[in-house]
Amino acid sequence: MPSFFAWAFRFYIKWILRSKTVMSNATAMRKALHSLYIRPQSFSPPTNLGNNIFIDRVDLNAWPLYRVSAVGRGSSSNQRNDQKRDAMVYIHGGSFFHDIASLHWQFIAQVACETNLDVLVPIYPLLPRPVSSAAQINKGLIEICRKSEQPIVCIGGDSAGGMLSIAMAQQLQKTAPELAARLRCLVLISPVLDCSLSHPEVVRLEKDDPWLGIEGLEVLMPMLADGLPMNDPIVSPLYGDTDNLPPIIMTSGTSDMLCADARRLSGKFQGKGTEEPVPGSFHNEKLTFIEKADMIHVYALLRNPEGAEARELIMHFINKY
What we know:
Layout: H1 4-16, H2 19-23, H3 26-38, E1 53-57, E2 65-70, H4 77-82, E3 87-91, H5 102-114, E4 118-122, H6 134-147, E5 152-158, H7 160-175, H8 177-180, E6 185-189, H9 200-206, H10 214-225, E7 248-253, H11 259-269, E8 282-283, E9 287-292, H12 305-320
Parallel strand pairs: 3-4, 3-5, 5-6, 6-7, 7-9
Antiparallel strand pairs: 1-2, 2-4, 8-9
Helix pairs in contact: 3-10, 6-7
GO molecular function: hydrolase activity
InterPro entries: AB_hydrolase_3, AB_hydrolase_fold, GDXG_lipolytic_enzyme
Domain Alpha/beta hydrolase fold-3: 88-275
């Protein structure tokens, strides 16, 4: 049974924020897209992430790029950041048109505090800008890996960022195998895996999803694909090569319509192909899938007991690898 705090956040999303009103209506989605295009959100990190968190700008191309570090005991922030420490790239979600939010920054700060990694946070271009296709973002992310002096050993992201994370890892295998060889793990929080949003299990789960909707997201996907077929791995990494990826941890909730495609990815790792969704948590040496009953989209980022439990498992996974 969900905790009170999980229930309260679900109530807030559904009845106060009314996110589904936008996500399930094409006209409302177009209006929201236009509104954020002409009045963009701030992507600046908050100032209340903790006295031990140090953030600086380390831009490597046209995008802003932040580095988040946790200052160690007895060391200064300059000493911390002068070292060529191993790093994680974290790619935020937001349906491809919302900028990074406080929940993302809080999770990033926790990673920096509880692992031995710095976290690189790219501020990638958002829809409907002409440089915001999946292929263009993928190219920019790989360029960050190429130019970074810090070895990238982990890639992670939530929702839209989860899609960009696994697609990036797949393309690194093809275009920069020497960089792909450095990767030790992937972190996928409620990822988008099939941008067609057409599987019957997605349609079924949408009815219980208080946040996401198919009709609104279908407005975005042609812009994201920018001429690529919807089953191209850059757009829908469910169909990409998973054989050579590093170990993956993936979280999803059963009240998230994207859980359908997470189950399909789990099924793929269980030898059942991409069409059969396999419900329930699963673990082998390549995939740790955590499916949580009654949890909503990106529940692992939320400030409730279930989210805290998921984050603890994620931190343990990162530290393990």
